[in-house]
Write a structure and sequence with these properties.
Blueprint: E1 8-17, E2 48-51, E3 54-56, E4 59-63, E5 68-73, H1 80-92, H2 95-98, E6 101-107, H3 108-120, H4 127-130, E7 140-144, E8 149-156, E9 159-161, E10 167-169, H5 179-188, E11 200-204, H6 207-220, H7 229-240, E12 243-248, H8 255-271, H9 284-287, E13 297-305, E14 310-312, E15 318-321, E16 326-335, E17 341-343, H10 349-360, H11 362-368, H12 370-390, H13 393-396, E18 420-421, E19 424-425, E20 428-430, E21 433-440, H14 462-468, E22 481-482
Parallel strand pairs: 5-18
Antiparallel strand pairs: 1-13, 1-21, 2-3, 4-5, 6-8, 6-22, 7-8, 7-15, 9-10, 11-12, 12-18, 13-16, 14-15, 16-17, 19-21, 20-21
Helix pairs in contact: 5-12, 6-7, 8-12, 11-12
C-alpha cells in the first residue's frame, strides 16, 4: 500500500467463465452486455450542449435518503436549458467578475473578514464569495508577512450553474473553485493538526459479499453458455450486494467528500466499459486478455497527485502548482474463498496500460467530464492547505480561522453522507470466454507533494517574481479579490 499520499482508489473484480459446450463458430463478438447496478448500460447517454461542437458530460452523483450513492443523468442535447441558465447568470453577474482574468488574486484572510461582516449583518455569504470570485485553478499561493495576507491566485472567469448542479466557467466550461471545498481542506490541515493526517475515502465490497460471489462463480464455472450472460451478471450483482463507503479525514457530509467518491466511482465505470469516456481512451475491458485473468483477481486503481507538481521560492513565501497534478496507478489483489482480499504488490499489463492511458489523457478527459477537473481542484486545495500549515502561515498571520474553522458559523457539513454504493456489473465476450468485470471501491490518503524530494527548484526565481508582482498597497480594507 502506498504510504501517506493523497490517493483515490478503485476496486474492480474480474471473473472469467469458460463456456462448457460453446461451438467454435459462435458469433460471440466483443459487445457489452447489460450493465447492472448503474441504471443499465449507460454508454449511450446524451450530454449537455454548451455550444455548437462542445458537449459536456450530463452525469452526476446523487445520494438518496438511505445514503446510497448512484449516478443520474440530466441531458440537454439541444442546449436550450443550458443557454437559458447561461444568459440568466450573465445578466446577474457584475461585469468585473464576468470578465475572464489570467491571474485573479484572492486573499483568504480578507475573504474571511468579508464573510464575517456578512454574517454580522445576518446575511449569507455572497455568490462571489462562495465561488472564490470565479477561480478555476489554484496556480499560486503567496504569503505577505507584513500585511498577513495569504493569497491564492490563478485563472478566473464568470460562472453559472449547469443542469448537474456544478458551477462552471462561462468561457472555459471548467468548474470554478468552491469556498466550501477550500474550507474543508483548510480544516483538514488546520493549525495544530497532524500534517500527515489522512484525507480520503474508501468504497469496499464486504467480505460476505465477496464470499457469496466466489461461491456463485464456483457453482456456475464449466457450464456457462452464451445464453447465460444476463444470469451471470445478475448473480454477481446480487451476490456482491451494496458496498460500504468510508470517509477519512474530512466530514462525509461535505461536497468535498462527494466529489472524491463520484470521481473514482465513475473512473471505475470507464474502466469496466459501463461509461463512455467520450475521448479516445481504451478501457480495461478493451485491453484485458481473458486467458491471463484469474477468476479471483482484483484490480485496484487509485488517483494520486503528480508529486513533482510544486515549485517553491527560496524563502518559501511563494508556491506554484505545476501541471495537471493527477495520476492513476494500480495494483492487483486476490480474493480468498472467505472473501478476504490480499495485495499482490504489482499490476498486470492491461491494468498498467489502462492507468497509463487514463493519466496521459487526464487533461482531455477533464475537459469533457467536469468531475475530473473538480477532483484536480480538490488535490490543488489540499496541497495548498498543507503548504499553508507546514510553513505556519496561520501563526505568522495570526489567523485562527475563527469563521472558516467554525462549523456553526460557516457550515459545510450540509450534504447527505454517502454510506453505500451499488455494485456495477457488465459482461463481455473475449474469444470463447465470458469476462464479467464487477465495479466497486475507492480509497484516498493524504498528500505528500511537499516532501523535499518532490519539490521543483525555482532556478530563475520566477515564483518569487510572481509574488513580488502582486500589488497590495492601495487595496480597500474590504477588498478581498482583485486582478
Amino acid at each position: 500500500m502506498p504510504s501517506r499520499r493523497f490517493i483515490l482508489g478503485a476496486l474492480l473484480f474480474l471473473a472469467w467463465l469458460s463456456p462448457a459446450m460453446m461451438p467454435s463458430s459462435s458469433p460471440l463478438g466483443n459487445g457489452l452486455g447489460q450493465a447492472r447496478g448503474c441504471g443499465g448500460n449507460t454508454t449511450g447517454q446524451a450530454g449537455i450542449m454548451i455550444s455548437p461542437g462542445v458537449v459536456l458530460d450530463a452525469a452526476s452523483m446523487r445520494i438518496d435518503e438511505k445514503g446510497i450513492a448512484g449516478k443520474v443523468h440530466v441531458p440537454d442535447p439541444s442546449g436550450k436549458l443550458t443557454r437559458d441558465r447561461l444568459q440568466q447568470a450573465k445578466a446577474a453577474l457584475q461585469a468585473d467578475l464576468a470578465k475572464a482574468s489570467p491571474m485573479r488574486k484572492v486573499s483568504l484572510t480578507r475573504l474571511e473578514r468579508a464573510v464575517q461582516a456578512q454574517l454580522e449583518k445576518n446575511r449569507k455569504p455572497t455568490d462571489e464569495m462562495l465561488r472564490l470570485a470565479g477561480l478555476t485553478r489554484i496556480r499560486y499561493v503567496f504569503f505577505y508577512p507584513d500585511s498577513g495576507d495569504i493569497v491564492v491566485a490563478g485563472p478566473a472567469e464568470g460562472w453559472f450553474q449547469d443542469l448537474t448542479g456544478r458551477f462552471i466557467g462561462m468561457a472555459s466550461n471548467r468548474p470554478v473553485l468552491e469556498l466550501q471545498d477550500l474550507v474543508v481542506a483548510l480544516r483538514a490541515f488546520a493549525p495544530g493538526k497532524d500534517e500527515r493526517g489522512v484525507v480520503g475515502c474508501s468504497i469496499d465490497p464486504t467480505p460476505e459479499g465477496l464470499a457469496r460471489m466466489q461461491k456463485f462463480l464456483r457453482e456456475v464455472t464449466g457450464r456457462v453458455t452464451p445464453d447465460d450472460r444476463d444470469m451471470i451478471v445478475e448473480g454477481l450483482h446480487t451476490g456482491l450486494g451494496l458496498q460500504k463507503v468510508r470517509i477519512l479525514g474530512v466530514s462525509p457530509a461535505t461536497h468535498f467528500a462527494q466529489v472524491m467518491v463520484e470521481a473514482d466511482y465513475r473512473m471505475k465505470l470507464i474502466g469496466i466499459g459501463a461509461e463512455r469516456a467520450n475521448i479516445k481512451l481504451a478501457s480495461f475491458v478493451d485491453l484485458a486478455d481473458a486467458a491471463q485473468i484469474s477468476r479471483n483477481a482484483l484490480q485496484r486503481w487509485w488517483f494520486v497527485p503528480n508529486y513533482e507538481c510544486v515549485r517553491l521560492s527560496d524563502d518559501h513565501l511563494a508556491m506554484e502548482l505545476v501541471g495537471e497534478g493527477v495520476k492513476l496507478v494500480g495494483e492487483d489483489e486476490v480474493v480468498g474463498a472467505n472473501g478476504q482480499r490480499m495485495a499482490q504488490g504489482k499490476s498486470g499489463r492491461a491494468s498498467q496500460l489502462f492507468t497509463k492511458g487514463f493519466t496521459q489523457k487526464y487533461a482531455e478527459l477533464a475537459r469533457r467530464k467536469p468531475i475530473y477537473a473538480q477532483l484536480r481542484n480538490l488535490i490543488d486545495m489540499a496541497v495548498a492547505a498543507a503548504h499553508i500549515q507546514r510553513e505556519d502561515f496561520f501563526g505568522q498571520a495570526s489567523w485562527n480561522m475563527e469563521v472558516f474553522g467554525n462549523e456553526e458559523l460557516f457550515p459545510v457539513e450540509i450534504y447527505k453522507a454517502p454510506v453505500e454504493v451499488d455494485t456495477v456489473v457488465t459482461s463481455v465476450w473475449k474469444g470463447n470466454r465470458l469476462v464479467t468485470p464487477v465495479g466497486g471501491g475507492v480509497r484516498i490518503e493524504a498528500p505528500e507533494a511537499l516532501e523535499p524530494a518532490n519539490l521543483l527548484p525555482d532556478k530563475e526565481g520566477q515564483v518569487h517574481k510572481a509574488r513580488d508582482a502582486v500589488e497590495l498597497k492601495g487595496l480597500a480594507a474590504d477588498r478581498w479579490w482583485w486582478d
